[in-house]
Each structure stands twice: as C-alpha cells, then as structure tokens.
Amino acid sequence: MKTICSHVILLIAANLSFVAGYLNIYLTISEVQRLLGVSAELYYIRNGNINNQALNFIVQIPSNINALYFTWEGLTDQPLPYAITVHTSNPEVLPPPKLNISYVGTVPKTTQTFLVSLPCSGLTEAEVDIKITINITLTNKNVTKLTFNRKKMCLLLDKSVSLIAQDSLLQLPNSASIFYIAMCCALLLMVMLILLVTLYYVKDKKCRSSGNTQPTTAATTFLAALPRNSVNASSYGSFIRMPSYSLIDERSKDLQDRIADLTVQRCRIRLSSIFLEGTFGRVYYGSYTNEDGAEETVIIKTVTDHASQVQIALLLQEGMTMYSLNHKNILSILRVSIQDHSAPFLLYPYKNTTNLKMFLQKCKVSSEGVHHTLTTQEVVEMALQIIQAMQYLHKKHLLHKDLAARNCMVDNELHVQVADNALSRDLFPSDYHCLGDNENRPVKWLAIESLLHKTFSPASDVWSFGVLVWELTTLAQQPYIEIDPFEMAAYLKDGYRLAQPINCPDELFAVMAYCWAMSAEERPTFTQLHVCLQEFYAQLTRYV
Ligand SMILES: *[C@@H]1O[C@H](CO)[C@@H](O)[C@H](O)[C@H]1NC(C)=O
Ligand SMILES: *[C@@H]1O[C@H](CO)[C@@H](O)[C@H](O)[C@H]1NC(C)=O
Ligand SMILES: *[C@@H]1O[C@H](CO)[C@@H](O)[C@H](O)[C@H]1NC(C)=O
C-alpha cells in the first residue's frame, strides 16, 4: 500500500552492495517515468555495484504496457558473457515473453537498450508474476545472478466477446479491434482524468472566495498517482476496463459533458454525520446541493487527511468502477469532488439504505424485538436482486471481484443494491487477509482459482455470490470462521465447503453449494441461478 512512496525512497537511497564486474544496468528516465511515474533513472548496477534494494523491488506493470526496456553497457575490455531467462507464472495468460536481443551473448561495450515484450493472451483475467533472470559471468569466472521481478495484471479480452455473444445483446467487432479500442479507451481515460482535474480546478476556483487561493499540488498528485501501476493490481484492472466498455456501449458520448456532470465543487457538499469509520476511511451521510439548487441526501466516501496518496488513488479507482452504470440494483457513483490539500469526496445517492452486512448483523442481535427477521422468501428476493445486478454488470463486461454483503446496500423494503468495494478493506478489516504477498484480499469469498492463481471470471463472481447467499441465511456470520486464511486453499482443495446454515432449506443450500464447484465450468451462470431461484421463489409463495 505504500508502494509509490517506496519507489521514491528507492530512487534516492540506493543501497549499494558488492562489486559485480564492471557494467551498468539501468532503466532510463523515460522508462521509469512510464512504469513508476517518477522522473529519474533507476540503476540496478552502476559501475559494477549492485543496488539490491532496486532489484528486490517488485515492479507492477500497468496492464496497458506490453514491453519493458532495459539499458546496459559493459565497462571493461574483457567480454562479459550473459545468459537471460524469462519466466512467467501463468503462460496461458501471459505467454513466455520475447527479447529483441539474443538469450545468450556478451554484454555490449556501448550503451544498448533491449526490449522484453510481454503481451497478454487476453484469454483469462489474472495477475501474472514475471521473473527475468540475467546471469553475468565475471572476469574471475564467478557468475552473478540478477533477478528482476515484475507483476502484471492481464485483462480478459477474447472471452468477454463470447460472453457478450451468449447474452446476444451487443454486436462486437473482432478481438483485435477490441484490443485497439481498449487501448484507445485507456488513453481516453487519461484525457478524461486530466479534464476532470482541470475542470474541477476551474470550478473550484470559481467556488472559493477569491482571496483564498492556494496552489493546486494535491490535484496534480492524484493524477500522478492514478494512472500508474503500484496500487492494487486488480483494482487497476477493473478501473481501466470501465471506460473501455462504456465506449463500446456508447455510454461515453459527450465525454466532457459527463465529466462536467460528475465533478462538483466542494462547497455544494455538506457532511452531516458519520456512517462508517475505519482507520483512514470515512463514510458520511451528507447532502449535496445540485445544479437546480435542490438538496439531495447522499452517502460520501472519503479518507482522512492522514491517508497516503496510494490510499487516495485506490479510493478513486475503486469508487469509479460503477461509473455511469444505470441499474436499479447497482449503486453507481453520483458525483466526485476533488479539492486541493484534502481527500476527494465520492458521492453516492442515499435512499434510506444501510450497509447489508451491518443490516444482517442487526437482525441477528435483536431478532425478537424491533428489528427485522428475515424469512427464506425474503432471502431469495434479495438474492434475485443481486443476481440481476450481476447479470447487468457482466453484460457490461465488468467483473465485481469482491461481491459480499459488506459491498451491498439495502433499505427497509429489502431493496438491494450492489456497490463497489472502495474502502471496504479499511472498514471491514476482518473480511480481508494478506497471504504474505502484501495484498489484502477477501480470501474467504474468493473462488479457488482466484485464491490460487488470481484469475477472475464471471464464474468466480458466482462463487462469491454463493458465499453472499450464505451470509444472508446466517445473518452475516463470518464464513469459515475456524479456518486460518493461509489454510483456505488447501481446505477448499480437499473438498470442504461452508456448512448448511440452520433453517436454510435444502433447495437454497443446493444452489449455494453448486456455486462452489471446484471447476469454474461446473458452476451455474447467473442466468441459470436466476431461473433456479425464481422457481424456488414461486414454490415458496404458492402456498402463501
Ligand atoms: C543462472 O545461474 C543459476 C545459478 O547461479 C542457474 O541455476 C541458472 O540456470 C542460470 N541461468 C542461465 C540462463 O544460465
Ligand atoms: C530492441 O528494441 C529497442 C527498442 O525498440 C531498440 O532501441 C533496440 O535497438 C533494439 N535492439 C536490438 C538489438 O534490436
Ligand atoms: C568468486 O567466488 C569464490 C568462490 O565462490 C569466492 O571465494 C570469491 O570471493 C568470489 N570472487 C568475487 C570477486 O566475488
């Protein structure tokens, strides 16, 4: 989570270690700018001194970058033989990368830039680890082994086409043009963000009293932080996908108008009371005075002033995933306000809704009293609404990747809305675990393949949906409470699953269990789930 900062430290305080023979290996200023968003050269070896800190650093490659450039030069007269190997953790998603120099040779005596190309296959969505190893034989015959670790989020391209074909709603061009469209959209997104910030700045200036002008560093730092890798890769993935699909959809006509619509001045927003509070995340109830001067009640997601740039960038990325979606069962973002020197405000419409997880827990606490007790029929009604939201989301080619009760909202009429997962890690820390890789994941909601290989598909959302229905029937108990997060993969592999909750009818439990099939192909689709649960619902209501 503190990766952007560590890049900077890494560039300044190089921790140099033993002599590796006279050569330089580094990334040029433009390459570092492209990968990390910092203007500096990054030396791995300078005059033979190895910068272990730089080598140990895992660089997150933005999903739109398909080639890495390394620059090197030999500084001695003796030849320095090298051997390079490149390994990827998931060749199906990212085929073995290619070099434009020979895999074995001698380090050139003049400055040379070589390229490692790593285009994703587009067949599956997954995070892939890339390991580039360079062995250099020194003049004393000792071999120095240098390992460069990279991570890349690969997005689903082809598969989404077949998915659409299935739903037969949209007619799409072939996969190659989709790729180009996606690239264009990534660019457009950048333009959009720049506009967003500029627009905001202009508006904000108008809004503020004229005597109070401050420099706008914060707004530009968001920009620097945003399109860069570094942050949680999976959220980056969905972030970049959002506008591309909106384009295919023609939802982003009048792009500028839309941005202008979304950005509002801070002075139009009033925070009233706190709704949820984490270590740095805050969710407020508040009000927003719209263009017509009317006041709307809103929920506002933001972070405290102590939040890092990365946390802010993550909030914006994750908060924008539901941008411009329009479905009664999806909570899409209403407005954004970015003000210098303080965290952005993300506004969502509020219709007497509360967080579903907290709602369920309240039901449990005082089921005999004022609060609501859920009947099977109500659980099925809620599940059906979530299914409709997910069908819509998948039709728009968005994967949720974090479907859970904590990321849904519900009102007193049990109208459910699926929301994004912005701030959930902070607000529901016990639902997320780090499995030693510095990435906080909803381990107990993840499908087996997401847990093991970080691959996501509509079928992995189906798995999480099964856990969500389990949460509905247990009034938000913690799933697999007795299982250590580190043991989860083994536990699932051994065939264990969540147990049938008390009072949960067999028919409903069968539906959940079906969602947890080991192989993604065996799981039901949301369309099948819809049919299935609707039948069950009809059965339940027949005798009422
Ligand atoms: C590099 O050296 C290591 C041992 O130091 C060896 O295992 C590996 O096979 C070598 N790689 C190449 C490409 O020669
Ligand atoms: C490899 O590609 C880089 C970047 O396109 C280029 O600068 C370099 O000259 C190429 N090297 C060789 C050996 O072709
Ligand atoms: C080369 O390797 C030998 C044995 O591994 C070691 O004793 C020696 O110090 C090394 N030389 C250098 C310059 O690292």
From TrEMBL:
It comes from Acanthoscelides obtectus. InterPro entries: Kinase-like_dom_sf, Prot_kinase_dom, RTK, Ser-Thr/Tyr_kinase_cat_dom, Tyr_kinase_AS, WIF, WIF_sf. It is found in: Cell membrane. Residues 269-537 form the Protein kinase domain. It comes from the Eukaryota. Its main location: membrane. GO terms for biological process: axonogenesis; cell surface receptor protein tyrosine kinase signaling pathway; positive regulation of neuron projection development; positive regulation of phosphatidylinositol 3-kinase/protein kinase B signal transduction. GO terms for molecular function: ATP binding; transmembrane receptor protein tyrosine kinase activity. Its EC number is 2.7.10.1. Keywords: ATP-binding, Glycoprotein, Kinase, Membrane, Nucleotide-binding, Phosphoprotein, Receptor, Signal, Transferase, Transmembrane, Transmembrane helix, Tyrosine-protein kinase. It is a single-pass membrane protein. One of its GO terms (cellular component) is plasma membrane. It holds the Pfam family PK_Tyr_Ser-Thr. The chain crosses the membrane at residues 178-202. Residues 25-154 form the WIF domain. SUPFAM superfamilies: Protein kinase-like (PK-like). This is receptor protein-tyrosine kinase. CDD domains: PTK_Ryk.
